Amino acid sequence: MESKITKIAAYTFALGLILWLGGVFLRAVISNELLQAGTLEFKPNINPNAERIIYSLIANASSVVLTGYILTWISGVVFLITTSFSPKEHGWLLMSAVFLYFLTPVEVYTIILDVKMMLLNFYGSNDLVEYRKLLIHRLGALSGVPFIAILCYLTMLGCIIFQPLRKLKEEVFETNGEQENY
Question: Comparing 6-15, 74-83, 139-148, which segment has the lowest mean pLDDT?
Fold first, then answer.
């Protein structure tokens, strides 16, 4: 039986994951409105007012991503500390934790770029050139590692749902019995 803190951490993790990954995909769809398909080149003849609104939407989506990632990261730590699940018996938990926390530096770097975009949106100028430079830098950041990170996060989600590499109770007893014979 899991404690109340563990259950709250699990629900908070799910909420944060939904906000975070949903915001990431929303931001990608919005950013796609500015760029030509398959390139990092802007579409010609975009109305400057429409472009400014799109940048504002990207900044707002980035604030949702930031909130969701912080919720996911903190609640994941609380869940790992308070849960009764053992990583030896629940390989899916270990895999999910490795995917989430191993890619933290990538997320921190992209969050720094997102915060710059949010600050530019809320407190900066309306200079579209600065927004364009920041967006291109954000999309080309780390040579595609953020895209690989998204694939890892989707794999993590699959691990949480389907729980592969989970030992059954009989296998745990057999393993413990074999260790005693050595």
Answer: 139-148
Q: What is the rounded average pLDDT of the residues 4-31?
A: 96
Q: Which residues contact 87 (CB under 8 A, 6 or more apart)?
A: 93, 94, 97
Claim: this prediction has a pTM higher than 0.70: yes
Burial class (CB in 10 A: 0-12, 13-18, 19+), 45: exposed
In this predicted structure, the answer to whether residue 137 has a pLDDT above a threshold of 70 is yes
Q: Within 33-127, where are the H helices?
A: 48-82, 91-102, 104-123
**C-alpha separations of 74 from 9, 44, 79, 159 in Å:** 9, 42, 9, 19
Contact 136, 93 (CB under 8 A): no
The pair of structure tokens assigned to 75 is 């609640």
* pLDDT tens digits for range 73-117: 999 999 999 999 988 899 999 999 999 999 999 999 999 999 999
Retrieve residue 144's tokens: 């595609």
Residues contacting 140, CB < 8 A, separation 6+: 40
* Helices and strands of the chain, counted as H and E runs: 7, 0
Using CA atoms, how far apart are residues 40 and 79, in angstroms rounded to an integer? 39
Number of residues that this document lists for the chain:
182
